[in-house]
Amino acid sequence: MKDVVAFAAAAAVIVVVPGPDMALVLKNGVARGRRAAVATALGINAGLLVWAFAAALGIAALLQASSTAFTALKLVGAAYLVWLGLRTILEAWRGSTNGSSEGAARPRSSPFRQGLLSNLFNPKIALVYTTLIPQFVDRGGSEVAQTFLLAGVFIAMGLVWLTGYALLVAELGALLRRSTVRRVVNAVAGTMLTALGVRLALERR
Question: So where are the chain's domains?
């Protein structure tokens, strides 16, 4: 297998660049605290694990090869991000808090499920497994085992990065959850999620 360090360096760029994952962790961390932030990070990385199995089984490659399937998944993912973003902006505008009667009465979706769905509906992850990872897999060897190893490196990096980010958000939680600051952060996170959703919908491969 080719240089794992080189793969880790390339993967690190993908992992640390701000995107829907970090915006979603920020949103849930500010609104619901440390447990929700960490659960969101775990959900995102669970999605990466599902994509790893999809890549090993050839499903990710089929998705990349089918323009219709890729576009359909992209639009579903974009719609989900826009929905999350607009809902967060609405919460910021209303100034709802965890202690409000409205927040207590309205059922909340699981942060883990939000992270999982956000990742599964992102077809760009399929491209990571079908374009980046194969460049570091030696042909003629155990390609499935190598794919899982490199996917494991990618997932581990994502887990460390997002969990660390979640804990940082939680540490700043007391400040961020002040009513005025919380509304501003929610508005920013919601705008980011909405914008990322729109960009995903408009982007070509």
Answer: 4-8+20-202
